[in-house]
């Protein structure tokens, strides 16, 4: 069989600076050991996020040139609205400037103090927006997700018993929605099966609770359904997506991921009544309902991106590159979340540095080393991200301490992946030399990971 190769070629390149270890040691100290505080020019390979960092296609750039910048009723708005209807099946749609803005508008409309929102490892902005409203996110993720060595194919799934127990425990008025995150970013970019989506919807109907999908990586989720769920192997990605969203009452979307644009988001829903209520908040926070914080050209690029990224070939190239890096790390003996997720490789930091105490931010310690040794910027998905318990003020120690290496779409080559794997291996081979981790010297009360400051413990 011939080897696999990407279905695209490169038209434009951007120079990146290859710094020295001496420079990086100084820069990370100045950045208080928080990778978010580094300048991008100080990073060689930026795997901080796959959000807004992808390379747009020639067709997306061409679509930008025909953006309609009218304040009201722009043709770009209708183009995106029609694409949303075609791909997801929803009649009502509100553009927003990014995913968390969609959460802000939707949650302002339906969440009140004391509410309970079940879901599968709610993403940090989602949880932040829930807790900011003094409501509670209840994690109903399947237990398989917490064993990084298990090859369970749908670790993003909701555990139906956990969900039903939550739905039973509280009155209906206290549960404004169930959120299913596809793919499940926080548990390793792991997919939710179509079977699970169907069962969640059935349960939700029994208790009369709406289901919303946090859809940032819906297309990658559909790819995994096609590959791993026997019943769907002969369906197109677009057919799978249509069925997935038939089990949802609405969606929030960060278009910066699976629509492969640098900025954008939206909300879509079935209910006209909800749309009307949410429109008020959209106008207040985002902009008039036909642009919602976006330029017309951005809406054109999102519409084109949604079309392209619901094609099997586009997704195959992307997911195979993530897998390429993951397999290299597995071959080097590095503990990673398995099977390899859709958008990132997640290093299991507790297994990588078992000698570091959890109070010393294990995953952050590994992430800092990756930067110092190789100029690679990953991100901690662990205790720092989990924030403190809003009631007790104590650190919440999540079951998993992960370092996420998120791969931007169509941005790096496999030589870059070889380099990343070699850096990881170098650190892994000398891991016994690490004695201590980090301590926090400053933190914000919510979403502290973006701005926290650390010191190395000597
Ligand atoms: C699953 C998920 N939901 C929501 C968001 C928030 O989207 P944005 O960064 O566009 O605000 C993200 C961003 O990473 C995400 O991964």
Primary descriptors:
alpha/beta; 2 domains; 5-stranded mixed beta sheet; 40% helix; Aspartate Aminotransferase, domain 1; binds pyridoxal-5'-phosphate; 458 residues; 14 strands; Aspartate Aminotransferase, domain 2
Walk me through this protein's architecture:
The chain is an alpha/beta fold and 458 residues long. It folds into two domains: 175 residues, Alpha-Beta Complex (Aspartate Aminotransferase, domain 1); 251 residues, 3-Layer(aba) Sandwich (Aspartate Aminotransferase, domain 2), CATH 3.40.640.10. Helices cover 40% and strands 12% of the residues. It is built from 16 helices and 14 strands. The strands form five sheets. It has a five-stranded mixed beta sheet, sandwiched between helices. Strands 9-12-11 form a three-stranded antiparallel beta sheet. The longest helix has 20 residues. It is globular. The site of pyridoxal-5'-phosphate has 14 residues, from α4 and α5.
Short structural summary:
This protein is an alpha/beta fold.
What value does the Rg take, in angstroms? 21 Å
Mean pLDDT: 96
Largest sheet: 5 strands, mixed
CATH architecture of the largest domain: 3-Layer(aba) Sandwich
In CATH, the homologous superfamily of the largest domain goes by the name Type I PLP-dependent aspartate aminotransferase-like (Major domain)
Count helical runs: 16
Which residues sit in consecutive blocks of at least 5 with pLDDT less than 50? none
Number of strands: 14
Please list the strands of the largest sheet in the order they lie side by side: 2-8-7-6-5
Q: What structural category arises from helix and sheet content?
A: alpha/beta
Q: Bound compounds, please?
A: pyridoxal-5'-phosphate
Indicate the CATH topology of the largest domain.
Aspartate Aminotransferase, domain 2
Strand content: 5-15%
Helix content: 25-40%
What is the 3D shape? globular
Give the number of domains.
2
Termini distance? Answer: 53 Å
Q: What is the CATH top level name of the largest domain?
A: Alpha Beta
